[in-house]
Amino acid sequence: MLIVLGGLPGTGKTAIARKLAVRSPSVYLRIDTIEQALMKVSALKEVGPAGYVIAYELARSNLALGMIVVADCVNPLSVTREAWRAVAASTSSGLLEVEVVCSDPAEHRRRVEGRTADISDFKLPTWEAVLNHQYEPWTTSRLIIDSALFNANEAATLICERLRGDPQHMEPTRQTPNHLLSVQEELVQREPIFHRPEQAATRAALESVTAPEFWETGASGKRYSRSHILDIVEGRLAASHQDDWKTEDFYCQQIAPDNYLLTYTLHQGSRVTRRATLWRRAVGGWVIVYHQGTVVEST
Question: Are 69 and 91 in contact (CB under 8 A)?
Answer without folding.
Answer: no
